[in-house]
Design goal:
alpha/beta; Nucleotidyltransferase, domain 5; 5-stranded mixed β-sheet
Length: 238
């Protein structure tokens, strides 16, 4: 059995959930700007008390590992490590772009579901970085990652080779940088998808089952700082 505390702070959303066997028991979230340092431990305390649990009742802690905000990631990871050290339980790290993808796959919006039912559709979760830069990765409609996370400068050509083959669903906080640039019939945009600790629960449960814990002493967030300044116009490597 797995009772896991999930923490996601890589973006503007400060999100915490408590889950049993991948099913969310309690969740707290806030999109308030720069609230992570102030709200994270409050949220953790609230959901643990709500379920009458303490750190010793947990089997593990899972944290969103990034990419994303440097400050947000440091807050989330340091808090997760502190709980794990104190309770002597393992830590699991889940990619933030994977969490966004999973959140999208849980949507009930009919138009989005219709696009996601096409086997050729790709999912492109994006996290806003700076200026015209984003972090992104590519997934198929089953949530399988087919391109590792990269940092890129968005331009008009970067996704054209993929869009010529079928739908690409763009979502996440970096998506708005692409809307005006990607004027293509196969570019599909889904707003208001955040890396929620709620949709993280199934991913952390699987990581727990597969024993994919990270080294508690040496684990560091996945910052992905290196940006590519130019993008090949002939093809997008996958």
């Amino acid at each position: 059995m797995s009772i896991i505390l999930n923490i996601e702070t890589a973006t503007s959303l400060c999100s915490v959930s408590l889950a049993k066997e991948g099913t969310v028991l309690a969740i707290r979230e806030s999109l308030e700007e720069k609230s992570h340092a102030r709200m994270l431990t409050v949220f953790i305390d609230e959901i643990m008390k709500e379920k009458g649990m303490g750190p010793k009742d947990l089997n593990a802690v899972a944290v969103g590992k990034g990419p994303g905000s440097y400050t947000g990631l440091r807050i989330g990871v340091s808090t997760a490590k502190g709980i794990c050290f104190g309770a002597n339980i393992p830590l699991f790290a889940i990619g933030t772009l994977n969490i966004i993808c999973n959140q999208l796959l849980l949507t009930s919006d009919q138009k989005t579901r219709a696009v996601l039912n096409k086997t050729s559709t790709l999912i492109c979760p994006m996290i806003d970085a700076r200026r015209m830069e984003v972090y992104y990765a590519l997934f198929n409609i089953f949530g399988m990652q087919i391109k590792e996370p990269v940092a890129a400068v968005v331009d008009q050509q970067i996704f054209i080779p993929l869009l010529e083959k079928g739908y690409v669903v763009f979502t996440g906080s970096g998506m708005n940088k692409c809307k005006d640039l990607l004027n293509h019939p196969n570019a599909f945009f889904v707003d208001h998808i955040h890396p929620s600790a709620g949709s993280m629960a199934a991913l952390s449960h699987k990581a727990f089952q597969d024993n994919e814990q990270v080294n508690l002493a040496y684990f560091e967030p996945f910052y992905l700082k290196d940006f590519i300044s130019t993008v090949p116009k002939k093809h997008l490597p996958i």
